TrEMBL record:
It comes from the Bacteria. This is Uncharacterized protein.
Length: 146
């Protein structure tokens, strides 16, 4: 018998109990998601592997790809909704559809934690609108996946 792919989902402490089972398997980096102001990721985890599943499970729509590239390319400062809409060359209503459909794509990906978001967002009081960004190491991973 041969097992060609073995994955683990759980906490670091839980992994320590089964680490020996993964001795010959490549380890995919896991990063604890940081809590954003409105991001709703309280203590859950997102991983590069989970993000890869979201992106590659079915064909990625061109507007989803544009949105992720713009967010990832914006660095730590991110983009306001107005800047993101401009970067994607679409109307605000079209943007709402893209961001909503990407949320459905993420939440319908097997294994994606319920309270974890793919990207970060917070209310920017200075410009009175939402600001969106993707943090490292996820930014670099997205650049390789799209």
């Amino acid at each position: 018998m041969k097992i060609s792919k073995l994955t683990f989902q759980g906490t670091a402490a839980e992994f320590e109990a089964v680490r020996s089972q993964f001795a010959d398997s490549p380890v995919i980096e896991t990063v604890e998601a940081t809590t954003a102001d409105e991001g709703g990721r309280q203590g859950e985890q997102r991983t590069i592997e989970l993000m890869r599943r979201v992106i590659q499970r079915t064909g990625l729509a061109p507007n989803h790809s544009r949105m992720l590239k713009a967010m990832a390319g914006a660095g730590d400062g991110g983009l306001t909704k107005t800047e993101l809409v401009g970067a994607m060359a679409m109307t605000e209503d079209q943007f709402k559809g893209v961001i909503g459909s990407f949320g459905r794509r993420t939440s319908n990906t097997p294994g994606w934690p319920k309270e974890v978001q793919f990207y970060n967002w917070k209310w920017d009081k200075e410009v009175d609108e939402w600001r969106y960004w993707i943090d490292e190491p996820f930014r670099s991973a997205i650049a390789k996946l799209i």
